[in-house]
């Protein structure tokens, strides 16, 4: 017999399978020898009180030998001769759309402006070594999208648990670690994600799909008002039954192309701010009530959401045991982001701390850009940051408490940011709307997390790519662009997702919508 049970145990007990078996037997009021084995199905850390607990969902095998849970089998049919669908972008939305199309019997043709993971690694090394940005191959562009070289967070606020579990199972099938199926806040890690993405590409190719790198899309082709293909920078054109536009939130040229074609776009709220870095040991002490995490607890995380003058100030993409990286996607701009390896074993913790920017907060001189006003505001701040960095990738930085108190820093602490940091009076040049709310937000956070507001922490700029400042509107039912049938805006760049899992879910939804519409009109 098998029985599921939820238990709450100490970190020491959670690390000892024999103790767990005894606790399970006691909870079930059974003799210990009747529990032949256990499998942990769910795991979370509850550090709200000084007595830190590990909450576990356990499958117990009673009077029978344990059976290892088999990973979900995935069968991808041969679609090499099926009707093609163009997918623009090989990020999470594009890759999961492709896999879903294969399952449903259509042939995905992925067009990625950047390079494969292996080639992309070399371009990223060049950013760190020479501070040179390759516009189509960097931390934002290339196979796997911006998520490939990130913490690989798989947490989402999506209420559709079945959809989330399906995404996690597909990632696991392609090489992600077992823990992502168990942990309440799963993550893959920047050292594991590249091989998962490569395995997904292999599945698509083996099923008869296509993946083309160095293929920047410059135009959407239409026939009788319906999207029917794309034109590449090289001049080549490709046709398909539909076009899924899954380009990510940094593809500014795509927004401009759609704007120039007079296709409807919408400005939307977004957020910008700075990235803050603390010693991980300090964050552990704050979150674990003054105790060291030792070997039994994971590197501590945090999540803050404050309200300052009717605007949100919140943490974004918190990376325990991680590092800060240069995330610009074009020369002449400076952007920072964070990432963590799977083990999260680094000595620093970092997170974006950003300020909500509504349309009415964008300076009036940007209104001439219409729906792209937020995009230009974002871009200008990144260019301003680059100039403050003396036209380099050495990030402008300031000690945290000095920034909050509006005073100069005279030196800087050690940092994980490998190009290096340089002293900068960020309290003087950040836009007033962002600066003042960050300062007040940090004070509020410091009241909740004693020790967070300290000069042992450093901020650097700018954290600006939290989400797209533009939405590409689509029909709520068909998921097609409201003006151009067969064009399916998809994922984070279109304004319908935020992060790997929600982007993947949206990619699958768009693939299903493509098949549904194509089947209804002419069959596939």
TrEMBL record:
Residues 83-121 form the FAD-binding domain. Gene3D superfamilies: 3.30.70.2700, FAD/NAD(P)-binding domain. Signal peptide: none annotated. It comes from the Bacteria. Residues 269-466 form the FAD-dependent protein C-terminal domain. Residues 195-263 form the FAD dependent oxidoreductase domain. It holds the Pfam family DAO. One of its GO terms (molecular function) is FAD binding. This is NAD-utilizing dehydrogenase. It comes from Prolixibacter bellariivorans.
């Amino acid at each position: 017999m098998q029985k599921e049970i939820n238990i709450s145990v100490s970190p020491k007990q959670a690390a000892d399978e024999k103790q767990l078996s005894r606790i399970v037997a006691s909870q079930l009021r059974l003799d210990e020898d009747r529990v032949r084995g256990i499998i942990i199905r769910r795991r979370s850390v509850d550090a709200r009180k000084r007595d830190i607990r590990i909450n576990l969902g356990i499958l117990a095998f009673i009077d029978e030998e344990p059976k290892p849970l088999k990973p979900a089998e995935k069968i991808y049919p041969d679609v090499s001769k099926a009707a093609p669908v163009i997918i623009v972008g090989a990020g999470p939305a594009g890759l999961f759309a492709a896999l879903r199309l294969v399952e449903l019997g259509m042939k995905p043709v992925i067009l990625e402006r950047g390079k494969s993971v292996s080639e992309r690694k070399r371009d990223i090394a060049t950013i760190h070594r020479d501070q040179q940005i390759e516009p189509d191959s960097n931390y934002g562009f290339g196979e796997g999208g911006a998520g490939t070289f990130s913490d690989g967070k798989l947490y989402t606020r999506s209420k559709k648990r079945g959809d989330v579990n399906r995404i996690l199972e597909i990632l696991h099938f392609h090489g992600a670690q077992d823990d992502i199926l168990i942990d309440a806040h799963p993550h893959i890690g920047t050292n594991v994600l590249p091989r998962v993405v490569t395995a997904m590409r292999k599945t698509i190719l083996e099923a008869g799909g296509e993946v083309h790198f160095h293929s920047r899309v410059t135009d959407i082709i239409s026939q009788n008002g319906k999207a029917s293909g794309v034109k590449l920078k090289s001049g080549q054109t490709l046709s398909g039954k539909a076009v899924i536009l899954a380009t990510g939130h940094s593809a500014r040229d795509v927004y401009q192309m759609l704007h120039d074609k007079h296709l409807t776009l919408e400005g939307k709220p977004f957020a910008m701010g700075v990235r803050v870095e603390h010693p991980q040991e300090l964050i552990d002490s704050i979150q674990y009530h003054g105790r060291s995490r030792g070997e039994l607890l994971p590197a501590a995380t945090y999540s803050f959401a404050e309200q300052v003058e009717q605007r949100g100030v919140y943490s974004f993409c918190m990376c325990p045991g991680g590092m800060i990286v240069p995330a610009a996607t074009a020369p002449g701009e400076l952007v920072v982001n964070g990432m963590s390896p799977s083990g999260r074993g680094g000595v620093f913790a970092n997170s974006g701390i950003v300020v909500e920017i509504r349309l009415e907060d964008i300076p009036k001189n940007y209104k001439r850009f219409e729906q792209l006003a937020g995009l230009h505001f974002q871009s200008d701040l990144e260019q301003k940051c680059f100039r403050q960095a003396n036209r380099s990738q050495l990030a402008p930085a300031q000690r945290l408490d000095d920034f909050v108190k509006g005073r100069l820093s005279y030196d800087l602490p050690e940092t994980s940011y490998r190009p290096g940091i340089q002293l900068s009076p960020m309290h003087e040049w950040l836009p007033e709307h962002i600066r003042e709310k960050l300062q007040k937000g940090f004070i509020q956070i410091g009241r909740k997390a004693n020790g967070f507001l300290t000069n042992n922490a450093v901020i650097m700029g700018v954290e600006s790519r939290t989400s797209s400042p533009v939405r590409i509107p689509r029909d709520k039912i068909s998921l097609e662009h409201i003006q151009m049938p067969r064009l399916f805006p998809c994922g984070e760049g279109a304004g319908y997702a935020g992060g790997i899992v929600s982007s993947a879910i949206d990619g699958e939804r768009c693939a299903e919508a493509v098949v549904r519409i194509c089947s209804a009109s002419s069959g596939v």
